[in-house]
Amino acid sequence: MSKKRLLTGLQASGTLHIGNYFGALKPFVEMYEEYDSHLMVADYHAVTSVRDPKVLRQNTIDVVKDYIAVGVDPEKVIMFKQSDILEHTELGWILDCLVTVPFLQQAHAYKDKVAKGLEANAGLFTYPMLMAADILLYDTEVVPVGEDQRQHIEYAREAVTKFNNAYGETFIEPKEHILKGTGVVPGIDGQKMSKSYKNTIPLFGTPEEIQKAVMSIVTGTGGEIPEVLHNIHEIVRGAVTNNFTETNSPQKFYDLYTENKSNYKALKEALIEDIEKLIAPMREKRASISDDDVRAVLKAGAEKARERAAKKMEDVRTKVGVTI
Ligand code: TYM
């Protein structure tokens, strides 16, 4: 039996943070070999927010280095960037034509922007249908993501229904894969960790950058277990000790926090140490990957992805009626 298809993607809109790692990349690394997997850099999605071409290019290269550094073997996955496969924007357009304006107006990313009084570009508005295209083109069944992407996967399912009803059975309904403990990694201010909230702990920051971020995590005035710090630390500790082992048990972690209720500095230092343990080997691996390595990986990935996407789009074009 052939393996089920899996796909996920990250925007090339800035440096990745530990929320991206625990919410999407780590789950991907743990499951991708059991599936026929695709890992994408969403560079066209990033155009909704990045205006500087140099920055976009650099972000794209950096994200691929991050993918490889966290343990994704490019030989075992189709790793590619969205803009290399023209079928994504093509299918995105068709899906845009099937959903309504009020439906897209309910999308969180768009709603949040408008609620803040900011002007959303039309790309941000139709963003969910480009993402649906990313997923549907490859007959993806499983999409590992963080909680903030749940609605987008629902929208992709809606796009499937709309298309299949209009043109006949064509696409498969994808399902999100969201982990309970790490679906929403809190940021240093206690809100969801997010680039746009400027509350991140960088994944591949220098030790100084990581230290600066951790030292800024909000705590109470003393005497109580600092919730935000504890929650972030619990996630990191779980990963460092490979989901807790006897030598570094949940009990030890609990003790650390009860014994240091009023010593936030000691707790923060312990977290910095744990992050370093987790990141140091990945940082080393990352440093060994050149920009040309990245280009080669993306070229090979694009060839494989293109073959699949082209085949799917041929069927779609015929069904829609643009082939004569
Ligand atoms: P993006 O680039 O905002 O985030 C990438 C992944 O990181 C997860 N994530 C988090 N998980 C837990 N806690 C957090 N604080 C946190 N912050 C971010 C996100 O949920 C996501 O899984 N639209 C997508 C990119 C995309 C995509 C796709 C994903 C484009 N096409 C197709 C899957 C399939 C996005 O903006 O993710």
Listing every helix as H and every strand as E from the N terminus to the C terminus, the arrangement reads: EHEHHEHHHHEHEHHHHH
Gap between N and C termini, in Å? 36 Å
By CATH reckoning, the class of the largest domain would read: Alpha Beta
Count of folded domains: 2
- Radius of gyration using CA atoms only: 21 Å
* Bound molecule types: tryptophanyl-5'AMP
Major pleated sheet? 3 strands, parallel
- Mean of all residue-level pLDDT scores: 95
Order of the strands making up the biggest sheet? 1-2-3
| CATH homologous superfamily heading of the largest domain | HUPs
Number of strands: 5
Shape: globular
- SS summary, helix count: 13
Query: Which structural class best describes the helix and strand composition?
Result: mainly alpha
Poorly predicted runs are none
**What percent strand?**
5-15%
CATH architecture of the largest domain: 3-Layer(aba) Sandwich
CATH topology of the largest domain: Rossmann fold
State the helical fraction: 40-55%
GO molecular function: ATP binding; tryptophan-tRNA ligase activity
EC number: 6.1.1.2
Family: Belongs to the class-I aminoacyl-tRNA synthetase family.
Pfam families: tRNA-synt_1b (PF00579)
